[in-house]
Amino acid sequence: MTTDFQPFGRSSRRSRILGAALFVVALGGAIAVVMRSRPAPPPAAAAGHDHAARGAAGGDSLRPVALSPAAARRIGVTFAEASLGPIAREIRVVAQVTYDETRVTTIAPKLEGWVERLHVNVTGQPVRRGQPLFSLYAPMAVTTQQELLLARRLGGQVAGGSADARSGARTLAESARQRLLAWDVPREEIDAVERDGTARRTVTLRSPVSGTVIERSVSQGQRIMPGEAIYRIADLSRVWIEGEVFERDLSAARPGQRVEVELPALPGSRRAGRIGYVYPTLDPATRTARIRVELANPGLGLKPGMLATIRFTEETAPALSVPRAAVLVTGERALAFVKRPDGAFEPRPVTLGRATDDRLEILHGLEPGDSVVASATFLVDAESNLGTNLGGMGDMPGMDIRPPAPAEPGPGGRDGGQPRSDGGQPRGDDGHAGQGH
């Protein structure tokens, strides 16, 4: 039985293999027909050469933009002329009100002693020249007063004696008197000691200047040593405005330069002054140097510690410039759109120089008299980039953006339900895509 069915099994297997081979051949033929019906894409090498050529011709691939006058007005395009002229560059410096260092006095007694009483005991208290500051018990001052009184009594005793005795008594008295004066004991107190004939236990030290107490480092009952700083008094009738000028602006900051000072604490108030001093050193961390402006301070309205802004203008030689809005600055380039005689806007790279609040200096890229887009520059740049991007994509394989060719009309002027050239479904007489049933 097995032997009888073997020829039949081999024949069935051969039939299946032959059928599979015929199917593969038929499928390959169908694919070949479909591929021949599609347009051949341009060679890759040619496409690459074309893009390279476009990049070489257009630099950064930007193309001129053609806008009708109506379209330009609709997006707000205006024009300005690149012109030669002086560029007035305003420099702003962040500053602070400080004390005039030449008007700050440190009170440091020359006597050792104990503070018996503080007459000025509040920081910020105004004082006048000659006003009592504190009373000090100083044993050396008491001893010297006693020597003065003893010398005066001795002078009275030797009034009828020899000239040498009278001279010696006067010398002793004058020496004691001068020591008291050197210790800043007021002359009035010395006169009172001589007049009353009694030594005072304490001496009162007075302010040598008028001003405001900006520092107090003593308390009542405290022992002080000679040379120890007790008070610092500042005359605030004049103050300094000190600011930090960036290194690039130092050439414009010269002594005698006229400036204006604004203070946020006094809105609407501008004070005129001059740069009094430019410090000779530069801070390596901030790349700034300090400048100083001196201002009168009537009414003490300017208080040390206030923030301020110093403004001054640097006049430069004539240079080519355009409005700031005429230049589109990105991270890689600066562009200006120049209006050509045919009305198109040509994007042109420019090299920038100095800048003011409203103008930019042009070092390279423009000529005097060039008409540039002064507003809506960003929109014009977007239009230029859009045209460039679409144009480049349209030349790439499979990215044909040309409008589709019209289909062959069918009977009666319609397309007769023929397949559309855009790859869509055929449309029926009602204009809608045909539905498969």
Structure characterization notes:
The chain has 437 residues and is an alpha+beta fold. The chain has seven helices and 23 strands. The strands form six sheets. A six-stranded antiparallel barrel has the order 3-12-15-14-13-16. Strand 21 (351-355) and strand 22 (359-364) form a beta hairpin. Helix 4 (139-157) runs antiparallel to helix 5. The protein is elongated and about 155 Å long.
Task: Provide a brief overview of the structure.
The protein has about 425 residues and is an alpha+beta fold. It is built from seven helices and 23 strands. A hairpin with a 4-residue loop joins strand 18 and strand 19.
Distance between the termini: 53 Å
Strand order of the largest sheet: 3-12-15-14-13-16
Ranges where pLDDT stays below 50 over 5 or more residues in a row are 1-9, 37-59, 388-437
Structural category is alpha+beta
Average predicted confidence as pLDDT: 78
Query: How would you classify the quaternary structure?
Result: single chain
Count the E strands. 23
In percent terms, what proportion of residues is strand? 25-35%
The major sheet is characterized as:
6 strands, antiparallel, barrel
- The total of helices stands at 7
Helix content bin: 25-40%
Radius of gyration: 49 Å
Gross geometry: elongated
Order of helices and strands: HHHEEEEEEEHHHEEEEEEEEEEEEEEEEH
